[in-house]
Amino acid sequence: MxxxxxxxxxxxxxxFPFPARVSPSLPLGPLTYTKRPAQELSEETLRVLRVxxxxxxxxxxxxELGIVKHTVGYHVQRTKxxxxxxxxxxxxEEAKARxxx
Length: 101
Fold this sequence. Notes:
Layout: H1 43-52, H2 58-65, H3 69-83, H4 88-97
Helix pairs in contact: 1-2, 1-3, 2-3, 3-4
């Protein structure tokens, strides 16, 4: 029976193929972000954004598009991540600025 994989198992080459500790001396550079292309936003996500841009709540958007409130939240979160913004309002403004809606 194989031994359990632990950092102290003694055989790091085959049973534990990654270091047990991360060295603090690893160079970490600054994180840089680039604007993602608009093609990554699905048509349904864009529909949610268009209705959201009218100032409607998640529940009102869900009722208008025939989806559940959770799905509206998913699309808003996805949009925030893809457009690299922090709030739903910023997502709408960024989408307008890019000519998506």
